[in-house]
Design goal:
By secondary structure, the chain is mainly alpha-helical. It has 8 helices and 3 strands. It has a 3-stranded antiparallel sheet with strand order 1-3-2. The longest helix is centred in the first third of the chain and has 25 residues, at about 15-40. The radius of gyration is 19 Å and the shape is elongated. The model has no long low-confidence stretch (mean pLDDT about 90).
Amino acid sequence: MALENEIKQQSFKSEDQKGVINIIYTYHWITERVKDFLASEKITHQQFNILRILRGSEPTPLSTLTIRERMLDKMSDTSRIVDRMVIKGLVTKRLCAIDKRLVDVSLTQEGKKLLSRLDKRNCEMEQIMSNLTKSDLETLNGLLDKLRSVD
């Protein structure tokens, strides 16, 4: 559905303004669908992001600082999120052997099992992009990469 219909605004100051509003609106639209997907496992999208980051680094543990640098949401309070994940049994924390000021975080077997369950349901996540062809997705990814190259 067109942005104009979604937000009940028929005109914008410019295509630039409409583009920015469209990206922000779409971000929130996608985030809500991801939250719904993750709710069945009682985790947040930030926790899911951390689980994916840790799986990508296995078997090497990562410090909370490194995790924060790799997170999609840089404003997340990584230490607090990791502490909640420790309570849920999804990750472990240990003092870094090399630098005692850092804490190493690793996936537990329960964290791996949770990711495996979510992987099996990946088609549900793919539904978010189901209106786009492979070519559309390649174009979208290229445009988004190009947009961020301004800095």
